[in-house]
């Protein structure tokens, strides 16, 4: 059965925003961004459970009152971190993929884009864990799912562009393939983070090696164009 077409990502409703709206002044917006960046670093260093609002206040360099003016809880800050990082990274990845021609080349460009993201932003290592933390909380479960769905939709679009076929020559379920890829990469990232024991250079190498193996397995199992027995 052919897949039902999905609406473009831009047509999807925006995810829920948490915290006070950005203030009318540039200073207010800058303070909010500084708090979110500080929180990302604290969550990366201490984890969600180990982080305290007091740690984030110290890391931000702002007063306690300033931090609580923008965010009244650690949960609200974690949500803001996830939203900001997902927005930034998806925009960065899409910009890098625009440089590749259509089809399989764009899907092959996904791994280098993701590897560059993790090399350039050390906070990238904590986002998968933070997403799982918020997915376990009833009030933020829907948001965590929506943010993950954004990545699945992006990858599914690339799979459709690549024209993957199964062994019968039929089109594959692009959403199922995308879900597998996103889950595999997140699982690989978390495993590498653990076994590298804080050695960032080793983590980068292992993520690169594992990602390339995952890509090879994908293209050898479900390659673009007619496959064995295809019509």
User: What percentage of amino acids are in beta strands?
Assistant: under 5%
Structural class: mainly alpha
- Sketch the topology as an H/E string, one letter per element: HHHHHHHHHH
Number of helices: 10
The termini sit apart by: 16 Å
Q: Would you tell me the overall average pLDDT?
A: 83
Provide the number of structural domains.
2
Which sheet architecture does the biggest sheet show? none
Overview of this protein structure:
The chain is mainly α and 231 residues long. It has two domains: 1-18 and 82-231, Orthogonal Bundle (Tetracycline Repressor, domain 2); 20-71, Arc Repressor Mutant, subunit A, CATH 1.10.10. The chain has ten helices and no strands. It has helices at residues 26-50, 53-60, 64-70, 74-97, 104-108, 110-120, 124-135, 141-162, 174-195, 200-221. The longest helix has 25 residues, at 26-50.
């Amino acid at each position: 059965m052919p897949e039902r077409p999905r609406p473009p990502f831009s047509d999807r409703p925006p995810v829920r925003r948490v915290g006070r709206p950005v203030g009318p002044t540039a200073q207010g917006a800058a303070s909010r961004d500084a708090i979110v960046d500080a929180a990302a670093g604290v969550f990366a260093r201490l984890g969600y459970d180990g982080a305290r609002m007091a740690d984030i206040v110290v890391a931000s360099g702002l007063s306690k009152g300033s931090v609580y003016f923008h965010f009244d809880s650690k949960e609200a800050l974690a949500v803001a971190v996830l939203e900001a990082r997902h927005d930034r990274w998806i925009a960065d990845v899409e910009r890098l993929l625009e440089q590749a021609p259509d089809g399989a080349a764009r899907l092959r460009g996904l791994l280098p884009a993701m590897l560059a993201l993790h090399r350039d932003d050390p906070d990238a290592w904590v986002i998968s864990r933070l997403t799982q933390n918020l997915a376990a909380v009833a009030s933020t479960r829907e948001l965590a799912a929506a943010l993950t769905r954004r990545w699945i939709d992006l990858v599914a679009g690339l799979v459709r562009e690549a024209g993957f076929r199964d062994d019968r020559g039929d089109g594959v379920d692009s959403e199922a393939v995308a879900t597998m890829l996103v889950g595999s990469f997140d699982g690989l990232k978390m495993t590498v983070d653990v076994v590298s024991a804080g050695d960032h250079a080793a983590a980068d190498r292992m993520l690169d090696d594992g990602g390339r193996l995952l890509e090879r397995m994908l293209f050898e199992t479900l390659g673009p164009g007619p496959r064995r027995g295809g019509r």
